[in-house]
Design brief:
Layout (H helix, E strand, L loop, with lengths): L15 E5 L9 E7 L7 H8 L2 H4 L2 E7 L8 H4 L4 E6 L5 H5 L4 E17 L13 E4 L5 H12 L9 E4 L3 H9 L5 E5 H9 L3 E18 H6 L1 H20 L1 H11 L5 H12 L10 H12 L17 H8 L2 H5 L7
Parallel strand pairs: 2-3, 6-7
Antiparallel strand pairs: 1-2, 1-4, 4-9, 5-8, 5-9
Helix pairs in contact: 1-9, 1-10, 5-12, 10-11
Length: about 325
């Protein structure tokens, strides 16, 4: 299988990996290691959980380690090892699952951004793109995933009904549209406005979700040590609350991991990630299907996968049902 797509997801948290080492007596903290693949804001909740002392309150003791696995964001390191949890490249989770690995995602962070579909003059609706060429920055890139969500919303199969091609960055896609080299191209709000100024047609300008980070484990570990996973997820959800409600403290923690960054950049980084966060990080079905569609263009076997095959959300469902969030959040929240 080609591997180029696994490197291309902009904004993905290829940041960390967690695994257990050794057993502990009853009542003692469970010791785990957190191995960073690279410092990414998508792993900021883990930073907060560690430095804010939240995981310790749930009897989880974390040791941070640095590893090198830029290709998959640590996904490959989960295979055949006694790993507990980890962050990884969302696209890279699918091939191992197809090959029989029991990797599964527990939580997902999802970014939402307004996008429109730039189209040639003879196109009236996105459904009219059937049989046409849709240009994206690169296969597996953010605009590719965005395009697949938009196409599915219009009732098209992104793998069968259109030809998705690499057409470069947004300015290049606008030029390709103007020359009818492509008949559709996803464009964010800024470039959609520019394309309109040039006389191009923009349709269906709506907010579109993409997965930016996954928190993963293996099904075998859940079966073997479910309570450790439950405690970690509970601490992780509380760390989200900390991040959203304690801005100054969270920025101070991020600064430790991004030393040398100017204060303005750290604040921007904080705000951008805070905008993605929900009290419970459930997966987004549309964004997950876009991941499957992207891999299906390379490996047809992934067509058999459903979004539910990639996630085990029962720990989050427990927290939703048992009143944990009502105690955690004073203000009214939407689930």
């Amino acid at each position: 299988m080609q591997q180029s797509w696994s490197l291309k997801v902009a904004g993905v948290a290829c940041a960390a990996l967690i695994w257990g080492f050794g057993t502990t007596a009853a009542g003692e903290a469970k010791k785990v290691r957190l191995a960073y693949v690279g410092w990414e804001v998508g792993a900021a909740i883990a930073y907060v959980g560690i430095d804010g002392g939240i995981f310790k309150r749930y009897d989880i003791e974390v040791e941070e380690v640095f590893i090198r696995d830029l290709l998959t964001g640590g996904v490959q390191s989960l295979i055949g090892a006694d790993f507990v949890l980890g962050f990884g490249n969302p696209l890279a989770i699918i091939p191992p699952i197809l090959a029989g690995s029991d990797i599964v995602s527990l939580c997902a962070h999802v970014g939402v951004e307004p996008y429109g579909m730039g189209v040639s003059s003879d196109i009236t609706t996105i459904a009219d793109l059937k049989g046409k060429r849709v240009g994206v920055s690169e296969l597996g890139g953010r605009s590719d995933l965005i395009a697949r969500v938009m196409l599915r919303r219009a009732g098209l199969d992104p793998v069968k009904d259109v030809q998705i091609v690499s057409a470069g960055l947004a300015p290049n896609r606008v030029v390709a549209l103007s020359k009818d080299l492509i008949q559709g191209a996803p464009l964010n709000l800024q470039f959609a406005s520019e394309a309109k100024r040039l006389g191009l047609k923009i349709i269906d300008l709506k907010e579109v979700p993409t997965i930016t980070a996954l928190l993963m484990t293996t099904r075998s570990f859940i079966k073997r040590d479910e309570e450790t996973v439950r405690r970690f997820v509970k601490g992780y959800v509380e760390a989200i609350h900390y991040y959203l409600t304690r801005r100054a403290e969270s920025i101070a923690i991020i600064k430790k991991y991004f030393s040398g960054s100017n204060p303005g950049a750290l604040e921007t980084m904080y705000e951008a990630f805070a905008a993605q966060l929900k009290p419970l990080p459930f997966p987004d079905i549309e964004a997950t299907q876009a991941l499957i569609d992207t891999v299906a263009a390379i490996d047809p076997k992934s067509k058999s996968l459903k979004p539910a095959d990639l996630f085990d959300s029962h720990f989050l469902e427990e927290l939703k049902a048992n009143g944990f969030l009502d105690k955690l959040y004073v203000e009214k929240i939407s689930l």
